[in-house]
Design a protein that fits this description.
Elements: H1 4-16, E1 21-28, H2 38-52, H3 56-67, E2 71-78, H4 81-84, H5 90-107, E3 111-118, H6 125-139, E4 144-152, E5 156-158, H7 159-175, E6 187-191, E7 212-218, H8 221-235, H9 240-269, E8 272-278, H10 291-296, H11 307-325, H12 343-350, H13 356-362, E9 370-376, H14 381-398, E10 402-409, E11 417-419, E12 426-428, H15 440-443, E13 447-448
Parallel strand pairs: 1-2, 2-3, 3-4, 4-6, 7-8, 9-10
Antiparallel strand pairs: 1-7, 4-5, 5-13, 6-10, 11-12
Helix pairs in contact: 2-5, 3-9, 5-6, 6-7, 7-14, 8-9, 9-11
């Protein structure tokens, strides 16, 4: 239970420290919407989404106003379209993506995820067609997000899919070149992708999930920074073990707030509650930065020596606090390091403290991976695929979720800036080693086998 002092500190978080519920995501199963007639299929989905989500935004706003805690984003995640739309061609799947965009607009959510394929062990016809449709689907919609799981600890890495995704990312960037390749900002390539992520662009509703479910994503990097600053300022020298405890207690309070909101939204919508995802997800606003936490811990900037150790401490403490606060912690739950979405991290990349290689090292201990990383537009397909493969290997070997959200910005070089707008922010373009080169290793394709510790039966 919270003490009186902790309740007061929670109120302080709400008033001065950017505490909010970052997203309430309604998961909607489309499995029984399947039909081999395109018009009936689209009609079934549109009816399902607009029926279940018609009051989502209104209820989120009402609950947020009741407690004085804003729900910043309202989103929808649907069953993997590669599964429910397996009988359709790539051009028909583009039409389905546009219909999903229309449905999202009709119920006024900011994003809809689930244009998804799960291909860690191989690709079926529906997967191939959906992956082929991704560039056009994302370039011609504003609210649709796509994700592809190409690896898992149990299956290994599907290098055929990895190679294919390098080409898809280049195509998506080219089709949205007037907006600095923004279509790629709505596409994540995953290893060990959870089924209940409320955050975009990775959200989808897993096959083992119910007909409808509310998952909530709570953030609060500003809250964590302020808690560290207060402790260091008031108590003089404290060691890292004590700092871990402070972060853990802060994460506990933030998670309790998020679950309270999520459960009340679910109850008002008569939909079951799923998970609370406590992820330190920044925004491009001052005071809402993960990067600033590293400076509070005494580092010059994220990216300098000591960063990986600091991030390991932060991620572990956040997870422990969340797990103590709720029996239903899920999603990713930890620290995100999206380069363009965090002013401080973006500045570190611009000043050269944060390189692609250091970002990759950080992904061994963070919650996601290479997130919102703008790279030169002339980076080759092979190189993009190789970066993805390296990131997938970290996830597979370490039994954790990793992802790559890479944006090759057409016509721009390392050191220039890419502008995506809104929550997606802006970023300096990071240099890539061997950016233009071919990669015979990647073109060997096939499947990298699962590691020995996958044999857990």
């Amino acid at each position: 239970m919270l003490t009186g002092r902790e309740i007061i500190s929670t109120l302080e978080m709400l008033q001065n420290e950017h505490l909010d519920v970052r997203t309430v995501t309604l998961g909607i199963s489309l499995l029984d919407c399947a039909d081999n007639d395109l018009k009936r299929f689209k009609d079934n989905i549109m009816k399902r989404i607009t029926t279940l989500a018609k009051d989502l935004v209104k209820v989120c706003n009402q609950v947020g106003d009741k407690y004085g805690i804003p729900v910043v984003n309202k989103r929808i995640a649907v069953s993997p379209v590669a599964v429910v739309g397996a009988s359709f061609s790539s051009s028909q799947l583009v039409e389905i993506a546009k219909m999903l965009n229309d449905a999202a607009e009709a119920v006024d959510v900011d994003f809809i995820g689930g244009f998804t394929a799960l291909v860690e062990k191989g690709m079926a016809r529906g997967d191939r067609e959906l992956i082929r449709a991704i560039p056009q689907a994302l370039a011609e919609t504003n609210r649709v997000c796509a994700s592809v799981n190409v690896a898992s600890t149990l299956a290994g890495i599907n290098m055929n899919a990895v190679l294919r995704m390098g080409k898809v990312i280049k195509q998506a960037a080219d089709l949205s070149k007037q907006k600095d390749g923004i279509a790629c900002a709505k596409l994540c390539v995953f290893a060990n992708m959870p089924q209940d992520i409320p955050f975009m662009a990775g959200a989808y509703l897993g096959i083992g999930e119910p007909d409808a479910v509310i998952n909530v994503g709570v953030s609060g990097p500003g809250v964590v920074k302020k808690a560290i600053d207060r402790s260091l300022g008031s108590k003089g020298h404290i060691d890292l073990g004590r700092i871990s405890e402070i972060i853990k207690r802060t994460a506990y309070k933030v998670t309790r707030v998020g679950e309270l909101i999520g459960r009340e939204v679910a109850e008002n919508l008569n939909i079951c509650f799923g998970v609370a995802d406590l992820s330190l997800a920044p925004t491009p606003h001052v005071g809402d930065s993960v990067g600033e936490i590293f400076q509070s811990l005494g580092l010059q900037s994220i990216g300098v020596p000591g960063t990986t150790a600091a991030l390991a401490l932060l991620n572990d403490a956040v997870k422990k606090g969340g797990a103590f606060a709720s029996s239903h912690v899920g999603g990713l739950s930890g620290a995100f390091i999206p380069v363009s979405e965090d002013l401080n991290i973006g500045k570190a990349a611009e000043e050269g403290h944060l390189t692609l290689e250091k970002l990759e090292a950080l992904t061994s201990v963070c919650s996601v991976g290479l997130d919102m990383v703008a790279i030169p537009g002339d980076t080759s397909e092979d190189t993009i695929s190789a970066i993805i493969a390296d990131e997938m290997a970290i996830g597979v070997v370490n039994k954790k979720t990793t992802a790559a959200r890479l944006i090759p910005v057409p016509g721009k070089k390392a050191g220039e800036r890419a502008f995506f707008g809104g929550l997606l922010g802006e970023s300096a373009i990071i240099a890539v080693n061997n950016a233009k080169g071919s990669n015979p290793f990647i073109r060997l394709a096939g499947r990298i086998p699962a590691p020995i510790h996958s044999l857990t039966n």
